[in-house]
Write the structure tokens for this entry.
Amino acid sequence: MPFLSATLDRVKPSPTIAVSNMARELKAAGKDVIGLGAGEPDFDTPDNIKQAAKAAIDAGKTKYTAVDGIPELKEAICAKLKRDNGLEYTPAQVSVGTGGKQILYNALVATMNPGDEVIIPAPYWVSYPDMVLLAGGEPVIAEASIQTGFKLTADQLEAAITPKTKWFIFNSPSNPTGAGYTRAELKELTDVLMRHPHVWVMTDDMYEHLTYGDFEFCTPAQVEPGLYDRTLTCNGVSKAYAMTGWRIGYAAGPEKLIAAMRKIQSQSTSNPCSISQWAAVEALNGPQDFIAENNKVFQRRRDMVVEMLNAAEGISCPVPEGAFYVYPSVAGCIGKTSAGGVKIDNDETFAKALLEEKGVAVVFGAAFGLSPNFRVSYATSDDALKEACTRIRDFCATLT
Ligand SMILES: Cc1ncc(COP(=O)(O)O)c(C=O)c1O
């Protein structure tokens, strides 16, 4: 009898963590490595949020809480959804978990039966397919292309739907591409979903506040109120409030689904950290103006990175609407050989040779389901980005 669960055979270890580990090893060996793999803002959690956490500790808010969130946080989430998205939810329709990741996982575990399909547009956040597999469902990958700015078209969504489809996972702005759907583009998708009443929408709005220029964020239940009863709107404080380590994510949706998610959480993690929940209340109810300030920095970096990467031979980099990632194509480099003698036959060999020969760590596109590309996170200093892009340009210039 095998000791380990057969479920483990269905999933793979996180490729983004593997890249970070390799970069760390090279750094430890004394190599000058610039990491562009980080999935978190490089600025600190705002002070008012830290103070709220300290006050919570001093006030003894250090015990178990209600399973899926303290009432104060649920109220703050309802107010946020009304303020930012025009969506009406009651606290009973809200679930708070240990990060956006746990919220998505709870929802999948609560709903997957053998054979259930989940449509995931590629390029996708690395965890979606594996979470579906862990929950016992079948990921169905619908590949978007660089020609449509990495956005799924209505026809592609329609073609992916079968009688077994349970969820459509939607993520805008996206990790790894930064692509954000306009209201019109999203409406085309929601029109398709209106024709298939058995399909539910799991929208991951984690990068809602990180958008640039005149792009306006919108979320499925807002664009198509007809989908409200079968939409789970997921979000969190990790990215916009620089709170990745605090582990607070949340979702709003039909009460029955929220209750099922609560049941799973009650038998796994009990409740998200009490102190972090009070910090999140302050994040959502407190001043929001620092977000626009941070976005000015992110936008400046995005523009610099896109310009420098497009100047590199064989690389083509679209301008994304949001998040802190770009997802350039290396189609023009495939088939060439690096100065170190590595034949670049796919994006994985490109990223490996770039790391070994130039000390720049990026995540290869195959990890996100669309090749030949790589993901750059520009959530790092201007100087590091400039140096990394210069090295990428040099690397490409010496390919033969
Ligand atoms: C698209 C997307 N969704 C969800 C998450 C998970 O966020 P959290 O840190 O709140 O678990 C991430 C984190 O990288 C993400 O990129």
